[in-house]
Automatic annotation (TrEMBL), chains A, B:
Domain of life: Bacteria
Family: Belongs to the ROK (NagC/XylR) family.
A Pfam entry, by short name: ROK
Identification of the protein by name: Putative NBD/HSP70 family sugar kinase
InterPro entries assigned to the protein according to its UniProt record, in alphabetical order: ATPase_NBD, HTH_MarR-typ, ROK, WH-like_DNA-bd_sf, WH_DNA-bd_sf
Organism: Spinactinospora alkalitolerans
Keyword Kinase: yes
Keywords: Kinase, Transferase
Amino acid sequence: MLTDTATGPAGSQAVRETNLGAVLRAVREAAPCSRADVAATTGLTKATVSSIVGDLIAHGLVREVGAASERRVGRPGVMLTLDGRGITAVGLEVNVDYITVVAVDLVEQELLSRHEPFAAGAAGPEACARELVDLLRRTLADPVLAGRTVLGAGVAVPGLIDAPRGTVANAPNLRWRDFPLRARMLELMEEAGLPEMPVLVDNDANLGAVAEYRGGHRAHTCDLVYITGEVGIGAGVLLDGRLLRGSTGYGGEIGHIPLRRGGPLCGCGRRGCLEAVAGIDAILRRTVPDLAPTAPVSGTHLAAAVAATVERADAGDVGVLRALERAGSWLGRGAATLVNLINPQAIILGGYFVPLAPWLLPPCTAAVDAHVLAPERGGCRLEVSTLGLSAAARGGAAALVDALDTGRLPLPPRRPLERPRQEGARPNGRSPAR
Amino acid sequence: MLTDTATGPAGSQAVRETNLGAVLRAVREAAPCSRADVAATTGLTKATVSSIVGDLIAHGLVREVGAASERRVGRPGVMLTLDGRGITAVGLEVNVDYITVVAVDLVEQELLSRHEPFAAGAAGPEACARELVDLLRRTLADPVLAGRTVLGAGVAVPGLIDAPRGTVANAPNLRWRDFPLRARMLELMEEAGLPEMPVLVDNDANLGAVAEYRGGHRAHTCDLVYITGEVGIGAGVLLDGRLLRGSTGYGGEIGHIPLRRGGPLCGCGRRGCLEAVAGIDAILRRTVPDLAPTAPVSGTHLAAAVAATVERADAGDVGVLRALERAGSWLGRGAATLVNLINPQAIILGGYFVPLAPWLLPPCTAAVDAHVLAPERGGCRLEVSTLGLSAAARGGAAALVDALDTGRLPLPPRRPLERPRQEGARPNGRSPAR
């Protein structure tokens, strides 16, 4: 079990849904496996497992795949595996300069991914909600997803999120305050004629951490921190495989820890926050001031400015190299704070930090080494994400699959009865006479 | 369930001990309560509960106290309560300038508490281990504890602790490195002829948090941070009622987060750590430089210097007030970092911060307000401990009681059969003929 996002079962359905989730997880982890294997893993009776597996097959989540291997004694059983064909979960991210969508199937294989420049920072929350719903509509209309049932949409936003309510309390770099994103999206989705589906809203760093935990290069690392590299810097913290949310859901705000007294102004209105000295905007203002003569850079296309920074650093521009060195060092001081307080196994840098990593990571690592009390950084690895700018959106999709796995999402609708596909089956679906 | 300290049951005993713990916790929470109440709370069968209660009575942990209240229907049952008479748990703390002991009974009532000046910072680990064992010996010999079985000793040390091994990895302010404190204490205890007992070693801030959680003014606050106010500053972090230890046990090192670039030298050898600008030593060097002309102050009696600081602040000494204001503000920046990352319900300042709180707390709170992104500090209260300098030792004792409660400590030996005490019972213990 990983996350604790929004929805959860209640009342008499709860036990059944918890058991459904347990069976689904057991199949995910051990597939191909028999019903008896699942009963052994979950501790449920064989009768319960058979009944649940029947449901899962009917809803298109699990399928049978031939007989057990020959090593088994006695009558060979039919094996089970997850059914990747009928389901999709969609993750979306809105950030200062882009929106992203990722659709995955039940085994979290990526079906589709789009990254579109969008000046969300300037557009305001209403326009962003419309853009997100439009991107969702276009995604669901994509032939790649044809015939798939949508589990729901998980939306990543850089800011303080009241996840249970789906409300954005404060997103400084988007300039949103108390915006009920889920409620507004649900209205717009109905207007657009989209099918009903659950919508989760969560912090981008939290969802990035979920994506890393479920499918990054350090997947299943239990004490893991994902750091977003955008205009803002956020931390998604997994402790013992569970998201650290804090008592009111506002944990992980590493971007606004006070690092430099009297330092530069931050998007949150304070001075010297980590993201004011090491966020992408702060970096670009020093490395490509000519591309963005007025601060903040956020209104422009960050991707192009980041690419220009990489080019100049590659060319050995001393000013650029010095600015990256300084930013990496501040980032390391922030990361050292995390390591001293939380002692994780890995910190993974994401977003725009990825292309800048060749220059940021060495001074960052040196600063962590210099400021962590525990020997050898308490065993913490400092690495770069392999998921790039799609991590948070991917995490939004993964969080929905996780919610299904843990019985916190209702099953998708039953699928119409489908005859087994056979070579030479007639177009009307009936098998030829034998 | 609260902590996860050192010992744990293994093998075939495990289930029985887990169930014993569950019954003990149920009685602790609901006493007076019947065996049937315990069965209902724990989900165990009445037969199992009866058998376990029999054991707990025989070992002097639970006792019967008359009949159920009249509100109950049917035959009145005998009620159970914890037996505070036969057991004690001992907590010890060694810190830079003192050692402390607290003994509690099974209901965590304080039986005895001693606080002794001791220049531990100068004495070295071997002398400290001897002093701790001698204090333990004197404590167990105290008439107040006569006839009680000792559950064990829990020892608090300011530093990075490998709790499962009972080793102090690094205690900068004591100048200890890789000292096997538990092993050494067990040897010395055997030499001194003390009874065999488990010894737990843990970080002072962790044990302070345990003490606050189990018996402070914010007891049972699930997301709680305790900050030690000694030469060093440490944080004990409880999330969801569980200690945040981190992946290698080195979490909570708030004292060494880098706050001030190029700031004053810290005991750990780095510069600008929180405790180098807001630890008690740093404060005293500015408020009472005449009492300790050479830095660090730690060799002298901190208590007297703290008292002198309080006196001068009370008298309105401008330099002293300014130094306390500055230290409080740095402390607030450190606390803001915790609030941004962890979003706790309460931060409780302990140790020598308690007498200095009238001057430290206002600038500290102002700095937290200034540097936390979440509205209203994410609901976090900033308060002063009511447990004073005995918090960590108290937590050492409480951690043992908690280990018993959660089936991670073996039961103490069975008590000799005791006849019910009656008015007029004859000295040989036999009841008079009826």
